[in-house]
């Protein structure tokens, strides 16, 4: 079984302190970086497979080691919530981070491949559909915010989404069911996209809010991680300020 996530990641997360206002020069540098890295990279990499998968992966797949550590996340209710308080986003900008510890944690995961696996039953996999346009616009805004926070996502952010199955579509092999969590089709797609690199299962993990708790709508995220064979935690367990180092845990024991 994989190691505990907190021991893999390490140091304690502290509540972030608001940074001082950046100078005009620093702002210009960040703006230029966003224009280059986001407008001409992340938002240009969206693609679909049939009607059963939406994804965004870098054009260049390159890592320092053949074994890749994956920090995988569900999207809604895990990395983000809606600003409006509605169950579903009303617009591309209707989102906020799950809490104030998301960004500090993601900054600690710079040596991980960040992967989002999300079921999007309200999104139609057609580039001209309103739901598709709103979905990718929301992810583009999230990517832009990550870059603003100086989190390098140019080669380290992959997104896989399982969209709505068209009502009239019938196929011999139900690819939609395969891609939808807790089934592992999106994970298999990731492994294929790694082009010869392998996932370090022992040091990889998945975070999701569908954990089978009384208040949860399902246990699909928990089962997804179990089927893959990686560590699982809820966002409440990961995004908090009392993460200890493995040495701290050993001393406490």
UniProtKB/TrEMBL annotation:
SUPFAM superfamilies in the cross-refs: HAD-like
Molecular function per GO: ATP-dependent polydeoxyribonucleotide 5'-hydroxyl-kinase activity; double-stranded DNA binding; polynucleotide 3'-phosphatase activity
Coiled-coil region list: none
InterPro entries to which the protein is assigned, alphabetical: HAD-like_sf (IPR036412), HAD-SF_hydro_IIIA (IPR006549), HAD_sf (IPR023214), PNK3P (IPR013954), Polynucleotide_phosphatase (IPR006551)
Pfam families (alphabetical): PNK3P (PF08645)
BP GO terms, sorted: DNA repair
Protein name per the record: DNA 3'-phosphatase
């Amino acid at each position: 079984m994989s190691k505990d996530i907190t021991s893999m990641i390490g140091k304690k997360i502290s509540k972030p302190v608001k940074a001082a206002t950046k100078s005009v020069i620093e702002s210009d540098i960040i703006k230029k970086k966003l224009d280059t890295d986001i407008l001409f990279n992340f938002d240009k990499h969206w693609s679909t497979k049939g009607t059963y998968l939406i994804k965004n992966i870098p054009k260049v797949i390159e890592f320092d080691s053949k074994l890749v550590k994956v920090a995988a996340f569900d999207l809604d209710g895990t990395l983000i919530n809606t600003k409006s308080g509605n169950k579903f986003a009303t617009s591309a900008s209707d989102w906020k981070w799950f809490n104030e510890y998301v960004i500090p944690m993601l900054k600690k995961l710079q040596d991980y491949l960040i992967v989002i696996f999300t079921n999007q039953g309200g999104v139609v996999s057609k580039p001209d559909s309103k739901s598709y346009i709103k979905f990718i616009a929301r992810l583009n805004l999230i990517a832009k915010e990550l870059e603003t926070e100086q989190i390098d996502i140019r080669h380290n952010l992959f997104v896989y989404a399982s969209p709505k199955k068209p009502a009239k579509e019938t196929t011999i092999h139900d690819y939609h069911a395969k891609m939808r969590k807790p089934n592992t089709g999106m994970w298999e797609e990731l492994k294929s996209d790694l082009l010869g690199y392998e996932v370090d299962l022992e040091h990889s993990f998945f975070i999701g809010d569908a954990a089978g708790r009384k208040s949860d709508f399902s246990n699909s995220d928990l089962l997804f991680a179990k089927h893959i064979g990686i560590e699982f935690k809820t966002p409440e367990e990961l995004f908090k300020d009392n993460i200890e180092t493995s040495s701290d845990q050993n001393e406490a024991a």
